[in-house]
Structures are given as structure tokens and as C-alpha cells.
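Internal tracking record. Fields below are filled automatically when a chain is submitted to the structure queue. Please do not edit lines marked as system-generated. If the sequence contains nonstandard residues, flag them in the REMARKS field before resubmitting.
Queue: standard
Priority: normal
Entity type: single polypeptide chain
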Amino acid sequence: MLADSHCHLNYKGLPEDPAVLARARERGVTAMLNIATRENEWDAVIATAEREPDVWATVGIHPHEADAHPNVDTARLVERAAHPRVVGIGETGLDYYYDHSDRARQQASFRAHIAACRETGLPLIVHTREAEEDTAAILAEEMGKGAYPGVIHCFTASGDFADKALALGLYISISGIVTFKSAKDLQETAARLPLERLLIETDAPFLAPVPHRGKTGEPAFVADTARFLADLRGETVDMLTQATAENFHRLFAKTRV
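SYSTEM-GENERATED OUTPUT FOLLOWS
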């Protein structure tokens, strides 16, 4: 019972291999969340979820794409999120590492996504890189306008940011990066996260965990991250996989309908 809480099944490297989903299922993956990053992906991402009963979809605009999507507002997100297979809003957030989009535009897009979460009740999928302070401030300010559920995806931020996210009621998702030898700070944070707020993901086709580094990431590899994380935290694999899967279905409540 494994849930890959964040993957990109329509990205190059995965759709070309029809065995990707079969390999995931063989390793016990029972749920995969297929994440959208730009509007021209939405139809394909949703179509995959319509076709595969253990795959669900999101709609959203990645911060890299904010400049290119000035017309994707809260109303547009809410409209597409009404689809029964769309279970979350995002990924969205702030990325100051690459700055592919204007920071003010990233922030405006981020707030529009949060408003859509508040209106629909669907969870927010947050991307943040080199933008901890602004991300935390916006999440808190928007939470003050009305509560919304959400998850910090592919967590690589500081322990202090983790504490702020947890205090807001958000979940934290750990990717294969936690298996890298260089990820000592992340490992320290991941080891102390409360189990009831923990998710795991692949971010496939990116970030393949040890022992698959250098390969195209795929949802099957979430099993390797789960094994590493369970050992790191002193938990059994069964305990961690069951808890994170239950957390996934609790957060993304439409997957239970």
C-alpha cells in the first residue's frame, strides 16, 4: 500500500514506456497523483486519470510558468477542478532559484491558486525553492483569510520552514532526494516529522532515489524512498507505507469518493 503523492506521468520519458504503471503496481503502489504544471497539460493529465483508476490529476501553473499564464486565475482553476478526477490544485508556489518568471507574478499566481483551494476545498500543492521567507509569509497570510489544506512537495527547505508549515496544518512530502548522501540536513528534518503529516513522492521523471540515481524516475521508485525513510525514522516499512498512504487519501479526499 504505497501512494506516490507527486509525479508527472505525462512528461517525456514516462508516456513512451507502457510498463511504467505496471512496474509501480508490482511494487505495491496503489495511488499516483499526476501533477500539472502548465495549462496545455491539463487535458492530457486529466485523460490519464480518467483512463487509470489508481491515477488522479491536479490542475495548476508551476511558478516557472507564471509569466506565460497571466489569464489562469482563480475562476479558471475552480472551473477545471470540478472534474471528478481532479483532486488538488497545483503545483504552484515560488521559485527564486531559477527566476524563470517575475517574482511578483509568481506571488500573484500563488495567491490565485490558494484562493481556488479555499473555494473548492481541494488541497494546495506547493513548490518552493530559495524562497522560504516569502512562501511562509504568503501561506500564513492566506491562511488568515480562511483555512485551506495543502502539502509542501519535494521538501528540501529548512527545519524552521518545516515547523512553520506544520503549524499551519500542512503536510510535508519527501522525495528521493532524502536518499542522497549530500542530503544530511533534509534527513535530520525528515527523521523528526510527525508520521501523521508525512507523504512520500517520486516527482518522476526527476530525482530517482538511490539505488536508481541517473535513471529516469518513475512511480515504482517510491518504494525505495519509503524503505530508506522508514530506516531513517526507526519505523517498519509497513508502518510508514500504510501511514503515508492513509495520509494521502485523507489529504486528497476526493480519491476516496
